[in-house]
Write a structure and sequence with these properties.
Pfam families: AA_kinase. This is UMP kinase. Keywords: ATP-binding, Cytoplasm, Kinase, Nucleotide-binding, Pyrimidine biosynthesis, Transferase. By secondary structure, the protein is of the alpha/beta class. It has a single domain, classed as Carbamate kinase. The protein contains 8 helices and 9 strands. Strands 3-2-1-4-8-9-7 form a 7-stranded mixed sheet, sandwiched between helices. It has a two-stranded antiparallel ribbon with strand order 5-6. Helix 2 packs antiparallel against helix 3, helix 5 packs parallel to helix 7 and helix 6 runs antiparallel to helix 7. The two termini are about 20 Å apart.
């Protein structure tokens, strides 16, 4: 399905699971060897949240807290690059220029956060925009986008497809936590202005990603520009 280049955003949740992460390493390696070209962007996970919480208790300012989270996301990226060292660009890019130079080598590019105030979802879409990539897969800690947080609201409705404009309206009206830890308005704006389609899939089952990649079967949410 996605034989053209795509961006793969991996939830930091994967790096909290010693059994799940190796499955994704194997899957990414398999995809790459079979001709799929991608850039991988990693989140920070519970380690980032722990450092941020500790920093906040000790009165670190918000920019400093963001830098802590960014550092952890880059550490996760370095771990993934080490595990995929035969195909990966080992130095972790810290900005778009470095991503571009790494991309030109033909190696698998893996990166984490860039700067304070940006989510790693925003980073993934900035990378997509900069490289002219039109599809982004968000392997998230939820299996789809909902009309509200299903972990809190039992009446939350699962969305199989939604436009960015509709999602933005939901966010404005605050009837949706639909992007809770998924996609912030800045990320959605980048996807909209550059015509990037986002596929949200749950990260807890690697086979969900495989079915999307190989068979074109979306079991999560398709967000259209």
């Amino acid at each position: 399905m996605l034989k053209e280049p795509f961006t793969l955003k991996l939830s930091g949740h994967l790096f909290d699971n010693d059994n799940l992460l190796p499955s994704y390493v194997n899957l990414i390696h398999e995809f790459w060897k079979n001709g799929y070209k991608m850039v991988v962007v990693t989140g920070g996970g519970s380690l980032a949240r722990r450092y941020i919480e500790l920093g906040r208790r000790m009165n670190a300012n918000e920019a400093m807290l963001d830098l802590l989270g960014i550092s952890v996301s880059r550490l996760n990226a370095q771990l993934l690059a080490a595990a995929l060292s035969d195909i990966a660009y080992i130095t972790i890019p810290t900005n778009l220029d470095e991503v571009f130079r790494a991309w030109l080598t033909g190696k698998l590019v893996i990166t984490g956060g860039f700067q304070p105030g940006q989510s790693t979802a925003t980073v993934a879409l900035l990378v997509s925009e900069f490289l002219g990539i039109k599809k982004m897969i968000d392997c998230a800690n939820v299996d789809a986008v909902y009309t509200s947080d299903p972990r809190i609201d039992p009446n939350a409705k699962r969305l199989s497809k939604v436009s960015i404009a509709e999602l933005k309206d939901m966010l404005k009206s605050k009837t949706v936590a639909g992007t809770y830890d998924l996609l912030d308005p800045w990320a959605l704006g980048i996807a909209q202005r550059s015509g990037i389609t986002i596929f949200v899939v749950g990260c807890n089952k690697p086979e969900t990603l495989r079915r999307l990649m190989i068979n074109g079967i979306s079991e999560g949410t398709i967000i259209t520009p």
